[in-house]
Design goal:
CATH architecture of the largest domain: 2-Layer Sandwich
InterPro entries: aa-tRNA-synt_IIb, aa-tRNA-synth_II, aa-tRNA-synth_II/BPL/LPL, Anticodon-bd, Anticodon-bd_dom_sf, Pro-tRNA-ligase_IIa, Pro-tRNA-synth_IIa_bac-type, Pro-tRNA-Synthase_IIa_type1
CATH superfamily of the largest domain: Bira Bifunctional Protein, Domain 2
Family: Belongs to the class-II aminoacyl-tRNA synthetase family. ProS type 1 subfamily.
Mean pLDDT: 94
Number of helices: 15
Number of strands: 31
Structural class: alpha+beta
Subcellular location: Cytoplasm
CATH class of the largest domain: Alpha Beta
Helix content: 25-40%
Low-confidence stretches: none
Subunit structure: Homodimer.
Bound molecules: adenosine-5'-triphosphate, magnesium ion
Shape: globular
Keywords: Aminoacyl-tRNA synthetase, ATP-binding, Cytoplasm, Ligase, Nucleotide-binding, Protein biosynthesis
Radius of gyration: 29 Å
Length: 574
């Protein structure tokens, strides 16, 4: 491709609305353009990257027996009602009606459609296992579409669904996909980590892993063990309860006046006690249920754990100050577990029962209790692991300290079990003629998000530094002079030669200063740059530069094509 003909509108300025580097660079390097919030057009170079990632994903799926299909994006509401998700998926689901006023949605994921397909086609255990996948646009009306391709409202996902006859089969399919995902992200040249994850809205109880590309700008926090292979999304990571001090209570619980005190920080300062002695008491509500939730003052409540344990389908929310006033008779800052209204369920994080000589709200404006003993002075109905893990804590598996990193979720795998097959009746007959539900798994790769993640991990102050396997083109030829016929003719010859060797190459033949072309080449991030200047070429040499290391070397023009080819082959081996 000739750069003079390429639709590659590069920009010097950082677009005002682009907050993260990958978004800035994708716009500046002319890979994407925005149509509306969370909706983008891929320009030629952006599309090439997308297609390359798709190709890697496809190869790894096919290699493990995945069969590619293509399902409709628009899905009938009836199926979603059958699975029970129509009402619980919420505002993220794009809903629409046809001319007969029948309800549809734009698929955010395809469990319903695929389970409907399989229930119609599969009869016998002999047809299992079945691995079906597609690579297609997904639609989610995200609360905050942002960061370019990172969180779009339309995005490209590969979704594979596995159907097995039993748990052992599911385990095998899951392992296959787990391994495939490791290969995919390694082949894309990314540094990533699989972590234990929460299944979220997809559901299922059999376990889940997320694949995180490690980058400081990542929206997710992960913890990993410094001693063993344990790694988990911070929101999922289980915690070991830790007692802080073992001080026996000196006496009875006492009511103290705490004027103006509202927050944990306030009370800690006012009474000059560490936050570890405070009981944080929060009122949560969902549907008809209300819970008083307790965690130690220095800890953060993990709402995902809370919801998984108690919320069911309706997610629990922090009660409004008005509701708190109505139920507890005080503002949120004075709530505590002592003498709570009859029937109010009290749930506590596992560290709370270990607290002696604690401080808590007194359910009376501007008052707290001190010297409170859990169990003696207040009841707990249920003890659960409800807090966020913290870096430095001991790993539950081996005891070594946990470390924290930021990550971008580029894929997730789920053991669904029979959640969807039971709801929709996707059954088969086993050897004995007994009807059973298919045991399912589902596996998603955020293909478009992977582009953004790759850039977050691979860039410098001049632009993108593509890993070779997903670069839009592997090599750019820059003519430093467009007046010198030797330069122009040799550039054209090398360009043809590289193409005939199968190298993906562009020739920057624009009538621009060399500096402008260099800047664009760095911004777009071609892994290799070949420069032809009058002086070096007079000696039969051209300059070959690696984008990543910045290393340059002079190469004989006649050896150039072969050398480039060899470097690319080396970079693609992994
Ligand atoms: P997130 O927590 O980031 O919203 P998710 O867990 O809801 O993502 P999944 O249902 O697991 O997403 O979808 C599979 C993959 O699709 C994700 O791992 C992610 O890479 C990608 N993905 C999900 N939502 C988006 C989005 N809005 N834009 C781009 N990619 C997305
Ligand atoms: Mg996910």
């Amino acid at each position: 491709m000739l750069v003079s003909q390429l639709l590659n509108p590069t920009l010097r300025e950082v677009p005002a609305e682009a907050e993260v580097i990958s978004h800035q660079l994708m716009v500046r390097a002319g890979l994407i353009r925005k149509s509306a919030s969370g909706l983008y057009t891929y320009l030629p170079l952006g599309l090439r990257v997308l297609k390359k990632i798709e190709a890697i994903v496809r190869e790894e799926m096919d290699a493990r027996g995945g069969q590619e299909i293509l399902m409709p994006i628009m899905q009938p509401a009836e199926l979603w009602k059958e699975s029970g998700r129509w009402d619980v998926y919420g505002a993220e689901l794009f809903r629409l009606n046809d001319r007969h006023n029948r309800e549809f949605c734009l698929g955010p994921t395809h469990e319903e459609i695929i389970t409907d397909l399989v229930r119609g086609e599969i009869r016998s255990y002999k047809q299992l296992p079945l691995l079906l996948y597609q690579i297609q646009n997904k639609y989610r009306d995200e609360r905050r579409p942002r960061f370019g391709l990172m969180r779009g409202r339309e995005f490209v996902m590969k979704d594979l669904y596995s159907f097995d006859r039993d748990e052992a089969g599911l385990h095998e399919s899951y392992q296959k996909m787990y391994d495939a995902y490791c290969r995919i992200f390694s082949r894309c040249g990314l540094t990533y980590r699989p972590v234990e994850a929460d299944p979220g809205a997809i559901g299922g109880t059999g376990g889940s892993h997320e694949f995180m590309v490690l980058a400081d700008s990542g929206e997710n926090s992960v913890v990993y063990c410094s001693g063993c292979d344990y790694a988990a999304n911070t929101e999922k990571s289980e915690c070991r309860p830790q007692a802080v001090e073992d001080i026996s209570p000196e006496g009875e619980m006492k009511l103290v006046s705490t004027p103006g005190v509202k927050t944990i920080e306030d009370i800690s300062e006012f009474l000059a006690v560490p936050k570890t002695t405070l009981v944080k008491s929060l009122l949560y509500q969902g549907d008809e249920k209300t819970f008083l939730v307790l965690v130690r003052g220095d800890r953060t409540l993990n709402e995902i754990k809370l919801n998984n344990a108690l919320g069911g389908f309706v997610s629990l929310q922090l009660a409004s100050p008005e509701v708190v006033e109505e139920i507890m008779g005080c503002g949120p800052g004075s709530v505590g577990p002592v003498k709570v209204p009859e029937g109010l369920m009290v749930v506590a994080d596992a560290e709370v029962p270990l607290m002696k000589k604690a401080v808590c709200g007194a359910n009376k404006a501007e008052h707290h209790y001190v010297d409170v003993v859990s169990g003696r002075d207040f009841r707990i109905d249920q003890v659960l692991d409800l807090r966020m893990v913290e870096p430095g804590e001991a790993c539950l598996k081996c005891g070594a300290p946990l470390k924290e990193a930021r990550g971008i979720e580029v894929g997730q795998v789920f053991k669904l079990g029979t959640k969807y097959s039971k709801a929709l009746g996707a059954n088969f007959l086993d050897e004995k003629g007994v009807e059973k539900s298919c045991v399912m798994g589902c596996y998603g790769v955020g293909v478009s998000r992977t582009i953004a993640a790759a850039i977050e991990q691979n860039h410098d102050e001049f632009g993108i530094v593509w890993p070779m396997p997903i670069a839009p083109y592997q090599c750019v030829i820059v003519t430093a002079s467009t007046k010198d016929t030797l330069v122009v003719e040799t550039a054209d010859k090398l360009y043809q030669e590289l193409k005939s060797l199968g190298v993906e190459v562009v020739l920057d033949d624009r009538d621009e200063r060399a500096g402008v072309k260099f800047k664009d080449a760095d911004l777009v991030g071609y892994p290799l740059r070949v420069t032809l200047g009058s002086k070096t070429l007079a000696n039969g040499q051209v300059e070959l530069r690696e984008r990543k290391s910045g290393e340059t070397q002079l190469v004989k023009a006649e050896d150039l094509a072969q050398q480039v080819k060899t470097m690319i082959e080396k970079a693609l081996q992994c």
